[in-house]
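Researcher: Here's a chain I'd like modeled. Treat it as a single chain, no partners, no ligands.
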Amino acid sequence: MLSRPSRFPLLVAVLALAACDRSDRPTGPATVAPIPTAAQSSAGGSERWVDERLFDVSGSLVGVECTDGRLSELVELKGQIFERFTVVANPAGGFHAVYHTMPIGLQGTGAESGEEFRVKLQDHGSFGQTTLGLVGTYRQVLKLVGSTSGRSFSLIVRGHYTINSNGEIIVEREKLAADCEG
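Model: Modeled as a single isolated chain. C-alpha cells:
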C-alpha cells in the first residue's frame, strides 16, 4: 500500500510509461499469450495455484524523479517482463501469495540522447491472510544505467502493512529511495 506523500515519484514513472508513449500503439504493455495456470493439491489438503505470464514492454517510456526534483532522461524500453504469481490455500482457510517479476532481454534507449541503457525492472511481494487479518510486504525496483556515460537513475519502493480482522490498518510503512548520479 503506497502512502500518499511517497506516491509521487512512482506516479511519475507510471505516467511516463503511459502518457509519453510516442507510438501509435496502445500505451499499456502488450501481453503475450499467457502460460497455462497450474493448480496442485498436496496430501495435507493445501492447494497451490501458479500463474505465469510474459508482458512485452517494448515502446514504453520510463523515467525517475530524483530526490532534488529533477527528472532523469526518458528511456524507451525494449524487451519483456516475466511474472509469476503463486497462491497457496491451506486447510485452515488461510491464503498465502507470492509474486515476482523478472526482466527478459530488457534494455533501453535514451529518448533524447540515444544512449543505450541497462534496465532493471523487478517487483516482489508476499502476502498472507487468515481469519486474524492479513499482512504483506513488497519491493519494487527500477534502475537505469547509461552504458557509455555511466549515468545512473534508480527508484526503489519497499513497503509493509498489517490489517486486523476488523479491516483496520495496524501497520503501514513504506520507504522510497530515489538515487540519481550523473
